[in-house]
Amino acid sequence: MQRRGGNRARAGFTMIEIVIAILISALIVTSLGMILTATVDAKISVEAESRARRLGPNIIAAIARDLRNAWATGPDENVEIDGSWFVGDHNGGDDDASDEIWFVTSVDSYMRYEGISSDLTEVGYYVKANDAPDGSPLEGLYSLYRREDFSVDKRPDEGGLGIKMHDRVVSFRVWYYDLPRDAVLEDGSLDPTALEEVVARGSSTELDSWDADEEGRLPYAVRVELILDATPIDAYNRKLKKRYAVYETLVRLPDFPALDDKFKLFSAQAPAAPAPAQPGNGGTGGTGGTGGTGGTGGTGG
Fold first, then answer.
1. DSSP state of 137
2. 58-82 confidence digits (pLDDT tens)
């Protein structure tokens, strides 16, 4: 018996089924892409904000430490030095300030000479506009520098080495506060209530600049405001909203009287020479330390 073989139709996908499959795959890929993009954007934003939050307080802390240890002294007839111990200048507006502050601090220098740090150091904080091309994330922003000089020559704005601390500074603003006479009570103590008014924002004692040579003293307090651009770098290309981080500190400076010749920073006092022995004396007095007075010798019997 002969068996007849029949032709069976070969199974396959129709064009409509293929198009539907492609559309579904495209929707899945698009959804995954959007999720990935959102995750990357969130990561970039967190990293940028974290960087600003990490560096901002550290910069403010460094400035406050230098200011808390600000130093000044009177003139010395044996040393000719020009300049001022403490100078602050205001530049720019309130929202895009580029202030400068130069002073001497007793914080040990980072710079070393033959392995030795200086215990009195010239320090300055200043900003420079970034030399960035159009469309760059750094366009229109400043770089903040800390200038340090190993030697003290009362020219804190000259020489030394400037180290960049941050390159995305929007504004660097400094205010100076003087201590009025009505804040000092009759017994010489300070009135706490009056002091709060002295250092209040917009108070009558708030100044935009300070020169220790003209004022004859250091400012009572200094307020520093630092505004950083915390916008993620990648956001500039998509023109997203900018984000800023604002940091501020109020520093009480050391008490120095009016700068006069009572402070002798550069006069090194040598130890007193021992007195020659006198007949009938039991011995020679001891020698005092630097700036001290020697003891008196005993009397012979």
1. T
2. 999 999 999 999 987 665 555 455 5
Q: Name the residue among 81, 150, 84 with its Cα closest to residue 114.
A: 150
Q: Are 44 and 232 in contact (CB under 8 A)?
A: yes
Backbone angles phi and psi of 64, in degrees to 5:
-65, -40
Question: Please, are residues 70 and 253 in contact by the beta-carbon 8 Å criterion?
Answer: yes
Q: What is the pTM of this model?
A: 0.66
Nearest CA-CA partner of 238 in 31, 38, 26:
38
pLDDT digits over 161-199, tens only? 889 999 889 999 999 998 776 666 666 677 677 777 788
Return left, alpha or beta for 86; rule: phi > 0 is left, psi -120 to 50 is alpha, else beta. Answer: beta
What is the distance between the alpha carbons of residues 245 and 166, in angstroms, rounded to a whole number?
A: 13
The label of the residue with tokens 């651009």 reads 229
Q: Which residues of 30-40 are buried (b: 16+ CB within 10 A; e: fewer)?
A: eeeeeeeeeee
Token output for 195: 């002091």
Straight-line distance from the first to the last Cα atom of the chain, in angstroms, rounded to the nearest whole number: 159
pLDDT bucket at 262, cuts 50 / 70 / 90: very low
